[in-house]
Structure formats: C-alpha cells, structure tokens
Amino acid sequence: MLKNRLIAVILLRNGQVVQSVKFKHTNIIHYDPVHAIESFNRWAVDEIVLLNVSRDVSTKDFFVDIVKRLSKECFVPMTAGGWINDIAYARALLANGADKIIVNTDAYRNPDLISILANKFGRQCVVVSIDAKQNSSGESFVVIDRGSDIQQVKVGDWAQKAEQKGAGELFINSLDHDGNRKGYHIPLIRQISSLVSIPVVAMGGVFHWQDLVDGIQRAKADAVAAANIFHYTEHSTKKAKQYLAEVGLNVRQI
Amino acid sequence: MIGIINYNAGNIKSVVNAVAYCTDEQILIADHPRDLEDCSKLILPGVGAFGEAMESLDKAGFSTAIPLEVKKGKYLLGICLGMQLLATISQEFGVFSGLDLIGGEILPFRVDLSLYRVPHMGWNTVGITKQDPFFFNIETNMDFYFAHSYYFHCEDESNILAMTNHGMPFVSAIRKENVYGVQFHPEKSQQSGLQLIKNFIGLSG
Description:
The complex is a heterodimer of chains A (254) and B (205). Chain A has helices at 33-42, 60-71, 87-95, 105-109, 112-121, 155-165, 186-195, 209-217, 228-232, 236-246; strands at residues 5-13, 16-18, 28-30, 47-52, 78-81, 100-103, 126-134, 140-144, 149-154, 169-174, 200-202, 223-226.
C-alpha cells in the first residue's frame, strides 16, 4: 500500500538555508545546505524539496551547482525549483540530480509551460506549487511571485487547471499559515484534495507533529511537508516519522 | 565498466550518483551506441513519456545497439520508464513500439480515482514473487519509491519477479534471462534501493 510521505523542504536564498515567515526569508539557518540535507537523508524523511527563494534571478546557475552537490549524498527523491520558465533550465536541474521539478509563478503566467514540461519529462516529474491568500470572507486566492502578487483567481480553479495542463502533483502553501506555527490551512488543502485526482502535498504552518497528522487525516493530503520545524529539533524528521507511525498512519518505516 | 545509457531523458545524475556510491567500478555515461561495447553491464534509466524516449533511442541508434549487447549476454537493468521501454508496445499518448526485450504492453493505471491517485507517487511495498540473486539481502515487502502513471502488463507470468498494489496489482520487477526491469527507482529508495543496485552490479554468469 502506498505510504503517506513526509517531506522536508529546504529554502535557499543565495545558497544559504533560510527560514520562511509569511514568505519573508530573513533568518539564515544553515550557511551550507549540505549539512541540512545530510541529516534529512540519514533520518527518516521520504523526500526533499529544494526551493530557490532568492528574488535575484541571477542565482539560477548557482542553484544548479547546489543541486548537483547535494544530489551526491541524497538517495531519496529530490524535487528542485525556483525560477523555472523553460525546458532548458528544467533539464539542467534534472541532469544535475533533481528527480522532479517544481514550478509556480511562471506556470501561472503561462500554463502551457506545465504541458510542455509534462510532455518532455512525464507528468510524474512536474510538481505545481500553488500559494494561497485568504480574503476577509474566507475565500482563498492564488498568490504568485513569492507571495507578493495576489491574483483574482481562486485556488481551486487554478489547481484544476494545473491538473488538466499536466501537473503530476500539487504543492499547496498558504501565505497566512507559512511560518505562522498554527498548522496547515486545513479547509484549503481539503478542498484541493477533493478537486483533483493527482497527489496533493500540504505545506506551511507546521509547529507540532500533530499538525502533520491533521494534514493527512483532516486535510486529506497525500504527503505532508514542512521546512522551519525540521531545522530546530535534533533528529527532527525521525521524531516526526515516529509520531506519525504511533498514531497509526501508514508511513514508511526504516 | 557500468554503462548508463544517456538519451536526454531525465534524472540520469541520480542514477550515476547511486551507482558511484555502490561500486568502485568505472561508470561510463554512454552518449553513443559504440560506448556500450566497452561496458559489462548496462542501465537504462528514464523518466518521461514513452514515445518521446523511444524516438530519442532510435535517433541515437540505441534501439538497435541495446538488443545487440543484450544478445551478447550483458546484463541490462531498465529503471522506471527504462523498464517500460523493454516492452513490446505502449499505449502512452498513442501507440509506440518498444525494444521488445520482454514481452508486454504498457497501459495506463485503471483504478478508482476517488480512492487512488494517479500518478502513483511515493513509497510502496514490493512483494517478491520469485526468488532471484537480484534480491540478495532484500526482504519481501520493503518500501521502494515509485513515480509513474502507466504500468507494465507482462505477457509471460514467468518473467515476473515482484508485484506491488495501487488500487490494482501490477508488476514492479521483471526479468527475462539477462534483462531486468524495475518500475520503482532504486537510486532513490535509500538502503533497499542501493542494495538492489549492488546486487545488479554483482550479477555474474
């Protein structure tokens, strides 16, 4: 039976691992991402997502070098993204050790990018990241460009379109929950999970291990992801995994 | 020397990294069919769409060179799409001929989408149905990493080595003589996956 996945997200700004609070990346956690990936890889994490959150597009090539370096020690799937806007750059990431690619802003602006990438690399290779922002009446709208640009399109509509265009997986974060320590945006993720038939990854807001359980049981996500929390606790991913197993969730044991 | 066949389809670096971790033997990233002659074992990786991958193999001359090397008795391991390319025919985005090294057809998952998501993505148990040196030191029902939307429908059941379940049982490992295939990604399946790669490298006879 397919397991629920635990995913560690590593946010990189100019090559340094940073913390995210509502998409602001001010705290540097590790100077060298190799340390982060070594521990995640050794411990119980099922997958690693590496995001280049730098606002400086010129970091693209440097990011490929980092992917290449990290992939040498990474024997779980690694998804990489940030600033992907064409086949050539996606191919560069895949050729240097990424197993999947993750797209957001450029895919929203040009949804055909998803189809182009899916046709080239297969849909299982293309993850579409969607960031959401709630308005005062509780409706969630798409936000692009690293949380800076709120769109008039509802998250559910974009999620369905991304699936039609060939997305193999959706990675859902909430600007209101990111780094906010109040757990995932459960209604949002549950809604998206019910709208699509591709896997859904929950992201943003994890502060207790129970938040991961809620992501799977209440929000119906297939995989649960977190960033900040994994950097602060020793053996964090192992403890998280143990917790998931103890409450009876179907997770990979190692 | 271990040859990893490079036809511009996907995560070749991951495979190279894993093989390098498992052996001191030299690794050759084979860009040309003639490179295969120097190798004792071949790995056909691949993520992507079947038709496009076959076209790349045809263009580079690999689709004639690979079967020739297999006839010489060299071991070949197809990974994920690389396993599917071993089949006779595929129904992915049209009808395409494969390398036809193991009789079978590539078909889309037919599962209840309200219960099972496609692509089949993540870690799932591999139930060994036939003992093989390939599974040395690997217990049955260990988890391996999968990422695919199509499966290998095997013509001859005696070629099946392992099965996995995702709304329907499907073949997750396959062998016909010196040709092996795995639907999962051993290069991304931590200890069990690395053990499997070691086992493949160690095959002899």
